[in-house]
Amino acid sequence: MGSFSLVHWLVFGVVAILLLGGGRFSNMMGDVAKGIKQFKKGMAEEDDKPEVSRIDAKKAADPAFDRDGEKLREER
């Protein structure tokens, strides 16, 4: 009861085209299509950069002291 049927949407589309004019409506749809293409292109460019995994990342430095406070390695 609260949703529109296909007939309602078709009537709404025809009224919108009549009010806005065919050329103006066509230009709007062209702008929407360009926006979608730019969005897809931007998303594809982000995927080109590989992320560094934890395995490939720089190893953490070895600790200088153990948990009791004794030196594990000598000063350089």
- How many strands? 0
Mean pLDDT: 79
Poorly predicted parts: none
Write down the Rg: 31 Å
**What is the number of helices?**
2
**Shape, please?**
rod-shaped
SSE string, helix = H, strand = E? HH
The helix/strand class is mainly alpha
Intertermini distance? 80 Å
Largest sheet: none
Helix content: 40-55%
Strand-residue proportion: under 5%
Task: Please tell me about this protein's structure.
This protein has 76 residues and is an all-alpha fold. Helix content is 54%, strand content 0%. The protein has 2 helices and no strands. It has helices spanning 6-20, 22-47. α1 crosses α2. The chain is rod-shaped. It starts with 5 loop residues before the first helix and ends in a 29-residue tail after the last helix. The mean pLDDT is 79.
Write the layout of secondary structure elements.
Elements: H1 6-20, H2 22-47
Helix pairs in contact: 1-2
Summarize the entry for a quick read.
By secondary structure, the protein is an all-alpha fold. It has two helices and no strands.
Which key terms come to mind for this protein?
mainly alpha; 76 residues; rod-shaped
